[in-house]
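Protein in question kept underneath.
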Amino acid sequence: MVGLFWEAARPKTLGAGVVCVLVGTAAAGSFIAWRFVAAMVASVAVQVAVNYANDYFDAVKGVDTVHRTGPRRVTSAGLVTPGQMRLATGVALGVASVPGLALAKLPEQSAMLAADSPGVLVHEAEPVGHGVDLVGKLAAQLLLQLLHPAL
């Protein structure tokens, strides 16, 4: 079963989560080990969560079928139930939130960016102020929708 979730994490795509942290660290001008590790864990966990969510939603909406070409998708192939994939997505988001919240609580943070469909919402805030609250609310809403789609 673990192998199926590793396959669904799409290891070949995880570099996208790694590269952005490496570039950001290089551009920072200083290196703080715990922040680097926290950012790396959060970034890779978000990439895994996105891949799990894509596997789940494409299977549920019928976009991916057992007849698709390319890499196998474990939910549409019937190897993992939609409920299991929804749970795995929530777990990956939970893993990402622990170091992500630690980084967001840093006192020098003064602006937060949050992806908000259909565009990007930019929220200026006092240090550790409303921006963290906004991101937290968006993350909580996403997690609730994944765990309880009927809400």
